[in-house]
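User: quick one, sequence for these tokens?
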């Protein structure tokens, strides 16, 4: 039987936070259908920024 390790809880919370950030960023893509095409760039850049920051945070962990 393995011993309880509280660091697993922290890791699970961190992973949930990462998943939530990615899901929220990707959900922004749903806005595109209601926006004029010139405004799509702003949404793409925003999503790209969030995903890049999240990936960098994962790489650093």
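Assistant:
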């Amino acid at each position: 039987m393995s011993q309880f390790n509280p660091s697993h809880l922290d890791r699970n919370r961190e992973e949930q936070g990462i998943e939530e950030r990615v899901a929220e960023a990707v959900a922004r893509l749903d806005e595109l259908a209601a926006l004029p095409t010139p405004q799509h760039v702003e949404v793409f850049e925003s999503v790209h920024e969030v995903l890049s920051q999240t990936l960098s945070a994962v790489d650093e962990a």
